Amino acid sequence: MGIKKKMRVSVLLMTTFAVLAFMIFSGGGFQHKVSAETDDYQDLKVFSEVLSALKKNYVEPVDTKKLVYGAVKGMLNTLDAHTAFMPPEVYKEMQVDTRGEFGGLGLQIAIKDKALVVVAPIADTPAAKVGIKSGDVILKVDEFVMTEDSTLMDAVQKMRGRKGTAVTLTVKRASEVEDLIFTMIRDIIRIKSVRSRVLEPGIGYIRLTQFQEHTARDLSGAITKLLNQDIHSLVLDLRNNPGGLLNAANDVSEQFLQNGQLIVSVKSREGKEDEYIAGRSSRLDRMPIIVLVNEGSASASEIVAGALQDWKRAVVVGTQSFGKGSVQTILPLSDGSAIRLTTAKYYTPSGRSIQNTGITPDIIVRPEITKLVQSSPILREKDLDRHLENEMVPDADKPELKDETDALPTDEETLAAPEDTQLKKAVDLLKGWRIFKEMEPSIISAQKK
């Protein structure tokens, strides 16, 4: 496998759309032009005929752009779950979102069984504060009723609005007989993608909430701060991190790897392969690292966890990750709109695809259901309508990922609470690691005798 220098590309690695936040990320490349001037588009004649018939014969005047946008949405809706159309206003807002600040409610959503399902609320946002939970099914946005034909884009556009304005969501929760109604005030959502602290003497903790433009830079600062506090072990928390920029995932990964090590390879339909290689060596040297993942860890998070796991650089602890192994590219269109198109799949350093399977932790640890952490249905890539298959793993050999009810922490305080059994297990493992390391010279000396 040849080595190729790191590339700066406009690709996305996210599990879902974020409501009103619309957490989609783009860099500066891949500015493709879309053309219909080929023989492959002869069937466009049918579309032209339908459009002409509507304009001439429909009982009321029609808006041509509205019809075209609707047709494009329908066309992309026949593809995988992560491909979508973005009208100009949505595309423009998306370009702002990559900086980690946007207007909205703070929800990550997905389509499951033709229903709009909450993957997770973002910590300290209007949605989290009113008590919306993972697994909630959104039935209505104000008076707009979600139907089988409604798309993620429809929901996002209905829930967008100016800061200070109200929106009401009608929600179905599995544990409740009656539908729940939540009224929220839209706010500006600011996401700090890197948080760090010392858990106890010598053990550092870094939590990444998503992969933004400045995540790698902020991570470097957090590492410096922790090293100045004399840590000897580290917990890297990627739980409920839905992903983000591919370049950010690479820049984060190389802060834990050695110069020249493969981070991830990306392969297109034609078989073209781009490799992303660590361009520097980690300052953490041989420091013991635990990576925490769960069903909310997706895409860019899975790239980082997969790279550290394949290179035996960290022990992965938690539950099976989300399983999104595809790459999205933003293709701008001539009128200011754009399409978010799945263009490739990615593979970990050992060559494995995690599409629909996810990262299997080295040590499985399920969180306890406590008063702070309520049970909720698990949603993974394999549960999404129109998900891509994993061509490397026959259906019969795919791991059985049951739709069990499990605990899913949804805010920063809960993730760091005493009841956090996954974090506690990570700390215990690092303590044991340290103890055995200190015993090593004595063991070697005894063996020589």
Sum up the structure in keywords.
449 residues, Pdz3 Domain, 2-enoyl-CoA Hydratase, Chain A, domain 1, seven-stranded antiparallel sheet, 24 strands, globular, disordered N terminus
CATH architecture of the largest domain: Alpha-Beta Complex
Unreliable sequence segments: 1-10, 15-33, 370-375, 396-418
How many domains, as an integer? 2
On the 0 to 100 scale, the average pLDDT is 80
The major β-sheet equals:
7 strands, antiparallel
Rg, Å, rounded: 23 Å
Distance between the termini: 45 Å
CATH superfamily annotation of the largest domain = 2-enoyl-CoA Hydratase, Chain A, domain 1
Beta-strand proportion: 25-35%
Tally of individual helices: 10
Shape estimate = globular
The CATH class label of the largest domain is Alpha Beta
Number of strands: 24
> What name does CATH use for the topology of the largest domain?
2-enoyl-CoA Hydratase, Chain A, domain 1
Structural notes for this entry:
The chain is α+β, with helices and mostly antiparallel strands and 449 residues long. The protein has two domains: 17-189, Pdz3 Domain, CATH 2.30.42; 199-433, 2-enoyl-CoA Hydratase, Chain A, domain 1. Helices cover 25% and strands 26% of the residues. It has ten helices and 24 strands. Strands 1, 3, 15, 16, 17, 20 and 21 form a seven-stranded antiparallel beta sheet that branches. The two termini are 45 Å apart.
Show the helix and strand layout:
Elements: E1 11-14, E2 17-19, H1 44-57, H2 64-76, E3 84-86, H3 88-97, E4 101-104, E5 107-112, E6 115-121, H4 126-130, E7 137-141, E8 144-145, H5 152-159, E9 166-172, E10 180-185, E11 187-190, E12 194-200, E13 203-208, H6 215-227, E14 233-237, E15 243-245, H7 246-253, E16 262-268, E17 273-277, E18 289-293, H8 300-310, E19 315-318, E20 326-332, E21 338-347, E22 363-364, E23 375-377, E24 405-407, H9 412-415, H10 421-448
Parallel strand pairs: 13-14, 14-18, 18-19, 19-22
Antiparallel strand pairs: 1-15, 1-20, 2-5, 3-21, 4-11, 5-6, 6-7, 7-8, 7-9, 9-10, 12-13, 16-17, 16-21, 20-21, 23-24
